[in-house]
Amino acid sequence: MSLQSRLIEPPLAEGPQASFAAQLKGWQARIEHELSARLPSIDVQPSRLHEAIRYSVLGGGKRVRPTLVYATGAALGIPESNLDAAACAVELIHAYSLVHDDLPAMDNDDLRRGRPTCHKAFDEATAILVGDSLQVLAFELLASDAGAPADPAVRLKLVQLLAVASGTNGMAGGQALDLAAIGRKLSVADVEEMHVRKTGALIHAAVMMAAACAPHLSETIWRALEDYARAIGLAFQIQDDLLDVEGDVAVIGKATGADRALDKPTYPSVAGVETSRQRMQELHARALAALEVSGLQAAPLAAMSDWLVLRKY
Amino acid sequence: MSLQSRLIEPPLAEGPQASFAAQLKGWQARIEHELSARLPSIDVQPSRLHEAIRYSVLGGGKRVRPTLVYATGAALGIPESNLDAAACAVELIHAYSLVHDDLPAMDNDDLRRGRPTCHKAFDEATAILVGDSLQVLAFELLASDAGAPADPAVRLKLVQLLAVASGTNGMAGGQALDLAAIGRKLSVADVEEMHVRKTGALIHAAVMMAAACAPHLSETIWRALEDYARAIGLAFQIQDDLLDVEGDVAVIGKATGADRALDKPTYPSVAGVETSRQRMQELHARALAALEVSGLQAAPLAAMSDWLVLRKY
Predict the structure, then answer these.
(1) CA distance B176 to chain A (A)
(2) How many Å apart are CA A93 and CA A164, to the nearest integer?
(3) Distance of alpha carbon B225 from its chain centroid, rounded?
(4) pLDDT above 50 for B274
(5) pLDDT at residue B10 tops 50
(6) Fewer CB within 10 Å, N- or C-terminus of chain A?
């Protein structure tokens, strides 16, 4: 099956793609609801901070990471009600990283998801505290929230996976490499390393956190999911870089060409657009191949990989 | 015993005070060592971020929170090797909060522990990432580090206690109230609420995390420690406010009068210096009274309360 024929966006009228599109929409609605229920109310002090937290998390975004949690859960037959805490936690970490990355001292972005960034809508101090609060709320949910398996060992594994993915070996380290790369000439390997940490680690965590919620998962399936997650994590970021070069601001909801304007090395700027597309499709194929293992419903994860690679925003 | 006769700073030549001073010094040396062993090496990429992390955490500070972990452990007979992860985690959260609070958008401080603040010694983007990385490292240690009881349920309780203390109901919320209070007129109750969240919550967590590491702790001792922790948390911050009014910059290692300069309401500015001193001593007495419960070695915690209330920096 070619990449194009498996395109799920825009949703087709019938067939498995249409049913996945509906499933994806369902997960996106679910995570919006579950996040909203877990964020602090603006009726509680400090209300301005709580307002900024809700502003930064709710009302938009593709919800790639939490939908990956649910899709992995669907592949493994885990009830969604046991995945909500993990789905929310990984999205809160992502949301905090966006708020902090947008700050003037970092990427200095004014627009996010078609709206003013947190520090523009509120102020810088509030944006710093929003990120700090979202990060800690993620770990609080994994420790205490009802929407996860009751077994403390499972929950601790969730904390571990999310923490490793977010720290200096993962997302925060990737952002540091990204900032250090501005104006420098990197190799393709350097850019991959940066992407693997900055974006790949959290995508990987989303898949593996769901896997950690499955009782009695075989080592073979665990490893297959690791391969899958690593491949889509990098493919996703290459597509992000390509969209930054080629995308339409009205569709993406943030400024395009931002990386070029900041003189940031990206996959296409280092490897060229054509090579980037090839690398992305190679990773996509590797992700699909990883799913060919018994005991796993490949369909939802294959469709997720299609979506992430073929998306236009 | 009067407050003055129990003064442990400067250390006396003999008697129980001298032995506590030696114990305190031992814990301070221990935490320095344990932190250093757990912080990422500057030989590993991203090395500048790792350097800034080590700069921000090591080489100074009273180590109030980790020494409280060890003191509570001593009161309950817990081996120090089972407390290192909790002691490090609570200090990492404290260290992250200092780095972020010092940022220009927050309190805009140039000096901390007698040295340039992180964003002055490095840059703002690095300081933001240092705080983010320290926060996540704290939770990683609680999930994975050898220096905690093996029982996943205990570790999960540690995550829970630290997360609640750090979030919008605790430290981050307290900092938001603190920023919102600049230039406003607060009541004594408002200032207490702000202090309880901003400083008290993490002090409370330090004591209760150690308590969570004790096997089979009675509900009575748990509650006694909660009362103790709440009392010293507020007393500690009132003393901080008093030192800001009266202290000596050379001893404290940061600018004094900073709260006044920022027009921040403090305990003395709202209640007056004399009332603040009385309130602090009342809390100190309450802390000591809480320790009068069987099954608890009161001495180390009583000495900690003395130290926190009578300290000059």
Answers:
(1) 7
(2) 12
(3) 16
(4) yes
(5) no
(6) N
Distance CA(A36)–CA(A45), nearest Å, equals 17
What local confidence, expressed as pLDDT, does residue B257 receive? Answer: 65
Looking at the predicted complex, does its ipTM rise above 0.90?
A: yes
Q: Which residues in A lie closer than 8 A to residue B175 (C-beta atoms)?
A: 129
Distance CA A196, CA A69 (A): 18
Q: Which domains does chain A have, with CATH numbers?
A: 13-307 (1.10.600.10)
State whether A173 and B45 contact (CB < 8 Å): yes
Exposure on the CB side of residue A121, measured as CA atoms within 13 A: 20
Residue recorded with tokens 């003191």: B71
Tokens of B285: 């007495």
Give me the residues paired with residue B104 across strands: none
d(CA B10, nearest CA chain A) in Å: 37
Q: Does B198 touch chain A (CB under 8 A)?
A: no
Tokens of A65: 């990471």
- The total of other beta-carbon atoms located within 10 Å of residue B312's CB is 12
Tokens 């940066």 correspond to A194
A46, A123, A153 ranked by CB distance to B173: nearest: A46
Q: What does the block give as tokens for B59?
A: 């080489």
Torsion sign over Cα A234, A238, A239, A243: positive
